[in-house]
Every structure is written in structure tokens, then in C-alpha cells.
Amino acid sequence: MRIRRSIIIGLATAAGLAGCGGGESSSPPPAPGSGQAQEPTVTPQPRASTPVYGKPGQDGITRVGMLDLRFEPLEVSVKPGAKVLFVNDGKVTHNAKSNHFFTRVVEPGDEKAVRASRKTGRYRYVCTFHPGMEATLIVKK
Ligand SMILES: [Cu+2]
Questions:
Q1: CATH number for the domain including 87?
Q2: Domain-located, residue 27
Q3: Is the Cβ–Cβ distance between 62 and 55 less than 8 Å?
Q4: Which residue range forms the structural domain that includes residue 103?
Q5: pTM, whole model, 2 decimals?
Q6: 86: number of CA atoms within 13 Å, CB side?
Q7: In a domain, 24, yes or no
Q8: How many domains would you assign to the chain?
């Protein structure tokens, strides 16, 4: 008898705890306070806030935007052998191909780096997917 009674008590305790826990989790009201606390914290995100095209960024790399359906800007000047980053901020796939470089496929939200020629000059490039989508990379010292 003793053993049996202790088992029954144990089960009752477990059931009580489970019921209590379930009740708490079904009613979580943390919305008003936490929402106000998060609003003023505007964290600066360099990637999103500064898509500066056509001139060297803080990292010294020149970016060219791939938009729908144009390059931004249409002319970019860089030093010989400079790294150029093609950033697809459009909604469709693009590429950039010249007689010197080829990014291959750049998906929306993606980016590909190329090296400018070491020889000065004007390098016209196109997106092979979109006729008329073309621009010029100017290499000068
Ligand atoms: Cu394109």
C-alpha cells in the first residue's frame, strides 16, 4: 500500500506541473514594452544604406550596379588593374562581358568581382541577356 500511494502522488504532481506550464506558455504578452525598446535602435548597415556606384567605396573597391535593365553608372573610371565589383541590385539575372573581362552570371542580390585591364583605354561591356544593356569601363592612370 505504501508504494502504491507514493506513485499516485507522484503522478498528481507531474500533472499539476504540466498544466501550470501549459497555461503560462499560451499567454505571452511581451509585445508593447519590447516593441518600443527596439524602435530607437537603428543600426547602420553599410551594405544597404550606401550602395555608392561608380567611385571607390570605403574598401577602395569601385562598384558598378546592375539594375533592370541598365548598368549604373554608364561610365566608370578606374586605375589599371583595379578590382571592380558588379553588384546586381536588380530583380533579374545579369552579367557583364567585355573583350577583357566577364563576370558570368550574377544573380539578384549577388555580386562578382573582375579585374580591370592593366592597359589604359575604354572597355565597352554588355549584359549578354539584355540587348542594349551596356556601359563602359574607362581605365586610366
Ligand atoms: Cu542584364
A1: 2.60.40.420
A2: no
A3: yes
A4: 51-139
A5: 0.65
A6: 31
A7: no
A8: 1
Q: How far is the CA of 128 from the centre of ligand 1 (A)?
A: 7
Name all contacts of 102-108 with Cβ < 8 Å and 24+ positions apart.
106/66
With 0-12 / 13-18 / 19 or more C-beta atoms within 10 angstroms meaning exposed / middle / buried, residue 84 is buried
44 domain-assigned: no
57 CA to centre of ligand 1 in angstroms: 23
3-state helix, strand, coil in the chain (%, to 5): 25, 30, 45
Residue pLDDT tens, the chain, 141 long: 555 555 444 444 444 444 444 444 454 555 554 444 555 565 554 455 456 899 999 999 999 999 999 999 999 999 999 999 999 999 999 999 999 999 999 999 999 999 999 999 999 999 999 999 999 999 999
Instruction: Find the 7 Cα to ligand 1 centroid distance in Å.
Output: 73
Distance 135 CA to ligand 1 centre (A): 11
